[in-house]
Request: fold
Amino acid sequence: MSEPTRYSTPPIELPLDLEREPDPAEGCAGCTELAAVRGRARVVGDWTTVSDCNVYLRRHPGGH
Reply:
């Protein structure tokens, strides 16, 4: 059996969060609801819904 490959440096750990999550637009009921849905989805580990809500929040007219 051969020896395992040895590296001179430790592995690089990349962050999981590449971007800050968008905030809901102030006074917008739709954005407020999306943020609430995102929060509930995060609690149950529904990362697809979390991501979808972030996309919709970023697309809000006027930007975030």
Q: What stands out?
A: The mean pLDDT is 87.
